[in-house]
Amino acid sequence: MPAAAATPVMADLRLVLPEVILALVATALLAGGFVGVGKNRARLLAGMALGGLVVAFLALWPGYRELTGAEGNNMMGLFSQMLVADRFGLFFRATFIAVAAMVVMYSTRYVEQHNLPAAEFYSLVLFAAVGMMLMAGSIELITIYIGLELTSISSYILAGLMRNDPKSNEAAIKYFLTGSIASAVFLFGISLLYGLTGTTNLVAMWMVDPSATAVTGPAWNVLMAVASVFILGGLGFKVAAVPFHMWAPDTYEGAPTPVTGFFSVGPKGAAFAALLRIFPLGIVLLSTRWIGIMTVVAVITMTLGNLSALLQTNVKRMLAYSSIAQAGYILVGFAAAAGGGAGGVMFYVVAYAFINLGVFAVILHLSTHGQGETVESFNGLAQRSPAIAAAMVVFLLGLIGVPFTSGFFAKFYIFGAAVNAGLAWLAVVMAVNSAVSVGYYYVIVRNMYLVQPPEGSGKLAVTPGLAVTITVATLMTLALGLASQPVIGWISSSAGM
Amino acid sequence: MEKYVDVVVFLVVGALVPVIGLIMAALIRPSNPTSLKRATYECGEVPFGEGMVRFNIRYYVFALVFVVFDVETVFLYPWAVQLRKLGMFALVEMFIFLLILIFGLVYAWRKRVLEWS
Amino acid sequence: MIPLTFFLILAALLFGLGIAGALLRTNAIRMLMCIELMLNAVNLNLVAFSHYITPGVFRGQVLAIFVMVVAAAEAAVGLAIILELTRKRKVIDVDRTTLLKW
So what's the pLDDT on residue A73? Predict the structure, then answer.
């Protein structure tokens, strides 16, 4: 329960310091676009963004202390409950800062090569990160909406940032139009939820008595289901769940590659955090209709994602469908909320974030040498950059869910939750789908190891930023696969688990 | 239902006022049209071309900047009404908000969005 | 007093009109206008609920103000993207943006 008494502003501010720092740095980066010229400016701006992210990560410390201290406060409402400090939020906020930091690191070379406006690029990544953090760090629908829009609007611009490439513009326009429709649908759901419960605060919603509201009985159930469908539709779009996935392949292919990597884990993870807040942790006591809907959506999403991925030859497009399939697995965790699926979702989002950013770092490595669009560009990578090819194998094993990688535990926890919740058949569908996914991931491994590199191609040099990103991603994938206990401990102590 | 009668009466009277006005004016005024008098009035400028043309796309950029800054001011109204109750904190907060807006304007200006070129 | 249901029906109609237009139209500007229509339906809902369900508490109105402001920002970004499309490709019809297709 949040503390009812109003806390002093400064104390509250201390707990949202990471967001404040990131917003300030993002603004400063925009201004930084005007000062100084020359080749080093882009690199300086990247350094500034990275520095800001590191400081923001350190600024999570007061919140961590507050939540783990002797007084053991579980959930602190900030700024009249508009934001909240709890273990759940801290977990996701830390993840999003890490994601943004890795995106900044692996983008530097791409930004220089493709002449992207560096100031705007890094600034928008940070703004999107702030939006994601607001989404995860709130139990108030107003704030969740603001966070969602901050993330989305930044994303629309990021998708279209490559102004000399018509594909990038097309990706942006498709993302924008479908995204805005989804936002409006989400909002309509929120407005219904507000009308039904009389509040926009998710904690206050727990305490709403369905028999004492303006609408009761069957009408309540129907309207609650309608509201759930609208909210699920709006956020389902952001996670690219079928049938709201149509934008993903086009946007993933057309957007600048580092941005695609960011889309596949950042805004997506934030939407999952918001879905967790709203459904299994929020309105679960008021209505359970959404569970059935989630089950259907999960099955269709993973099956369609995997089958479509099998047909792709463009790597970014294949990864778009792969990421749709992964969203399907995560949605199983929602359907199995009764069996502890929420914890599985949290672990999956983190595990997937590091794996997928690693995959995109490898693609960017190829793209610095003018390749990386098709699966053939992986030909003979084992000879051209052995270490990176090995890392790629780790990531792909993680995506499949092989033991000793984080992907295994991610699937394992969701699998277990599904069995616990009496949805064993859903767990079986998930396992079959994972088996199908081997088909398209294997193509990349085969091309790297069994196919000879093109004539006359030597070793590929790797940039420091990419080397660091790939190393961190590999280490995290293995660490979460071999020693997941601390993370699991934190997750199980998070609110409402 | 009686309240709706008021609305209907209001609508009818509202619609009649300009009609009566125009008819009265047509009856009273002298009629002496010249080509200059019949021309469309455009703030004193000599009108040229058709009205139904495609507007230059560059107008949109100004419109975009205007819309954003115009709508942001909507926050000022509830703030102004409640300021006395909210006190110092709200005052500082609004100035931070305005500072961000001003930064946005300066950014647009430095990006040469406000120039016609 | 006009009952709440009237507002809700009007909002639902507006929203339906908006989403139908947004999904069926191919002109990007028209789609944008339809999206604005959907957001207005949401605002109508919010303000009506706020007035009837929680009189004296202005949660709904506050959210409506935020929706308006965010919608303006969104429209600005959207128009800028559409502007870029018209400048580069001389089209505004999203049916003709087919570089990316599955």
Answer: 58
Q: Which residues partner with A374 through β-bridges?
A: A314
Q: Which residues of A touch B100 (CB under 8 A)?
A: 27
Query: Could you give the C-alpha distances from A466 to A10, A364, A397, in angstroms and in order?
Result: 39, 8, 20
Query: Within an 8 Å CB–CB cutoff, is residue C80 touching chain B?
Result: yes
Backbone angles phi, psi at A98, to 5 degrees: -60, -45
Tokens of A145: 């909406």
Using beta carbons and an 8 Å cutoff, which residues of B are at the interface with C?
A: 57, 60-61, 63-65, 67-68, 70-72, 74-75, 78
For chain A, the structural domain boundaries read 283-497
Kindly report the number of other CB atoms within 10 A of residue A278's CB atom. 25
- pTM, rounded to two decimals: 0.90
How high is the pLDDT of residue A215?
75
**Averaged over B47-52, what is the pLDDT?**
72
Number of A–C residue contacts, CB under 8 Å? 131
Both tokens assigned to A348: 């999956």
CA distances (Å), origin A71, targets A6, A75, A76, A202, C64: 18, 12, 12, 24, 38
Q: What single letter denotes the amino acid at residue C11?
A: A
Question: CB of B105 within 8 A of CB of B116?
Answer: no
| Residue among C27, C68, C81, C88 with most chain B CBs within 10 A, to mutate | C68
Q: Tell me, what DSSP letter sits at residue C79? A: H
Question: Tell me: the pLDDT tens digits for A59-99?
Answer: 999 888 888 865 555 778 888 888 888 888 999 999 999 99
Q: Taking Cα atoms as reference points, which of A401, A410, A394, A411 lies closest to residue A472?
A: A394
CB contacts of C31 in chain A (<8 Å) are 177
Across the range C74-85, mean pLDDT stands at 88
Chain B: list its partners (3+ Cβ pairs within 8 Å): A, C
Model confidence at A6, pLDDT cuts 50, 70, 90, reads: very low
My answer on whether omega of the bond before A243 falls inside 30° of 0, hence cis, is yes
Choose the mutation target among B82, B106, B107 for the interface with A, i.e. most A CBs under 10 Å.
B107
> Does ipTM exceed 0.85?
yes
- The residue behind tokens 């009109």 is C17
Q: How close are the terminal C-alpha atoms of chain B, in Å?
A: 59
Does residue B48 carry a pLDDT above 80? no
Q: Using a CB–CB cutoff of 8 Å, tell me whether C75 touches chain B.
A: yes
The count of C-alpha atoms lying within 13 angstroms of the C-alpha of A131, restricted to the half-sphere facing its C-beta, is 23
Of A194, A300, A187, A284, nearest to A242 by C-alpha is A300
Give the CATH superfamily of B57-110: NADH:ubiquinone/plastoquinone oxidoreductase, chain 3 (1.20.58.1610)
Given a cut of 50, whether residue A1 has pLDDT beyond it is no
Fold of C4-89: Helix Hairpins (1.10.287)
Q: Tell whether C79 lies on the interface with B, counting CB pairs under 8 A.
A: yes
Chain B hits for C87, CB-CB cut-off 8 Å, are 57
> Phi, psi (5° rounding) for residue A37?
-135, 180
pLDDT higher than threshold 50 for residue A5: no
Chain C residues whose beta carbon lies within 8 Å of the beta carbon of residue B68: 72-73, 76
Query: Are B107 and A9 inside 8 Å of each other by CB?
Result: no
Chains contacting A with at least 3 CB pairs below 8 Å? B, C
Residues of A in contact with C82 (CB under 8 A): 173
Burial (CB count <10 Å: 0-12, 13-18, 19+), residue A467? middle
